[in-house]
Design goal:
seven-stranded parallel β-sheet; single chain; about 400 residues; Rossmann fold; elongated; 14 helices; alpha/beta
């Protein structure tokens, strides 16, 4: 019996960022994997050829990130429905808010055998501290769509508690996993020679303190708060000439960030590196990461930095609460607290050598529960559950 599963997301880069391990597991279990997304987004990168080289069947759909682009998303829903007619899709695994809506609606409206529907919530929008409108709208939407969901996967404790309050389809189950899982064999401290070589390549002096941020350039990633912190330090006459701050990532906020950098006179301090294929080395040669996101489902960038022994200055959100410990593996600030970020920046710069080495060791130790072996083990159980629900296991598969 052929085993087909459809992964639905919004953008073409999502699969290679977050689903590689799942694809490998599915293929090992004999699944044919289909991937439906907007293959034209993001416009600055396309992973479609690499995805096809993995043996995944790709399908372009007109899905939009914004749930308010109704015309595009209605068309995307019709396109997903056509895929369900064209292929013997036994399961849909949907991701991202809009992908989660369309994937579950398609599963509900499917004619004939209903596919098993899995939704991975990479961060509910009705989190603690979210605007009231998020709770009034997004919670109600999720509550409604839960009735069409067989398996709901979450990646942090706050979302797990909220998910347990939802009524899934009869026999439904909620799972919590440690994100996509951290590759601790890859993410480990760089050898000193390699670390220094990368700093030299980036133009970072040995006497300069190098901060790094990783993330798409958008409002949620909150890079502006860091610029405000450095700008305020400069206004107060603090010497920031030995500080360098780099941001890896691209997005529609780039022009605004460039403007803010110039307005605060930080062009000698801050560099926008754009989309980077060598993030691993750039993070590894940094002295500290700044992770100021307003919200994160978990925040793999923070975990990866910690695994490399790089302390993290993080904003307090439901994702970073899973692994950040104030003054042990970094420093935690309120997302809108400029003064808090200033104190954290100065604190990490002023650590003694002994304290720095102790913090580095704790950084590495603190991420062990997030090793990808744990996430993969749970995903194998989930996909075995899917096979059982469909009846494939009864055929000896």
């Amino acid at each position: 019996m052929e085993k087909h599963i459809l992964i639905v997301t919004t953008t073409n880069d999502f699969l290679r960022k977050f689903e590689l391990n799942n694809v490998k597991i599915l293929q090992q279990m004999g699944y044919t994997v289909h991937f439906a997304a907007n293959m034209k987004e993001p416009h600055y990168i396309s992973d479609e050829e690499k995805i096809r080289a993995m043996g995944v069947l790709t399908h372009h759909i007109e899905i939009a990130r914004s749930p308010f682009l109704f015309r595009e998303n209605r068309k995307a829903l019709r396109q997903i429905m056509e895929l369900l007619k064209q292929y013997p899709i036994g399961a849909i695994h949907c991701h991202t808010p809009v992908g989660g809506v369309l994937g579950r609606l398609a599963g509900k409206r499917s004619k004939g055998q209903k596919p098993v529907v899995i939704y991975t919530a990479h961060g509910f929008h009705f989190y603690r501290g979210a605007p009231l409108v998020n709770h009034l709208i997004y919670y109600q939407v999720e509550r409604f769509l839960a009735h069409y969901t067989d398996i709901l996967i979450v990646i942090n404790e706050e979302d797990y508690r909220n998910a347990r309050r939802l009524w899934l389809r009869r026999g439904g189950h909620v799972y919590k996993i440690p994100g996509v899982g951290l590759n601790c064999d890859l993410f480990r401290p760089l050898p000193e020679e390699e670390r220094l070589a990368w700093r030299e390549r980036l133009g970072i002096g040995n006497d300069e303190f190098f901060f790094i941020s990783v993330g798409e350039l958008n409002e949620n990633k909150n890079h502006k708060i860091v610029l405000e912190a450095f700008g305020r330090m400069k206004e107060r006459g603090k010497d920031i000439s030995k500080i360098r701050y780099g941001i890896c990532g691209d997005g529609f906020y780039r022009e605004k960030l460039e403007q803010w950098i110039l307005e605060r006179g930080l062009d000698d301090t801050v560099a926008l590196y754009g989309h980077c294929t060598n993030v691993f080395q750039i993070v590894g040669c940094a002295d500290a990461m700044i992770f100021p996101s307003k919200r994160e489902g978990l925040g793999m960038a923070g975990l990866e930095a910690l695994a490399m022994g790089v302390p993290v200055i993080a904003s307090d959100n439901r994702g970073t609460r899973e692994y950040m410990e104030h003054r042990k593996n970094g420093f935690v600030c309120r997302r809108d607290d400029v003064e808090g970020f200033i104190r954290a920046i100065e604190s990490v710069r002023n650590l003694s050598e002994e304290r720095r080495e102790k913090m580095k060791a704790y950084c590495i130790e603190s991420v062990k529960p997030f090793d990808r072996s744990y996430a993969c083990a749970v995903m194998r159980r989930i996909y075995s559950d899917v096979s059982r629900r469909i009846g494939w296991e009864q055929h000896g598969e």
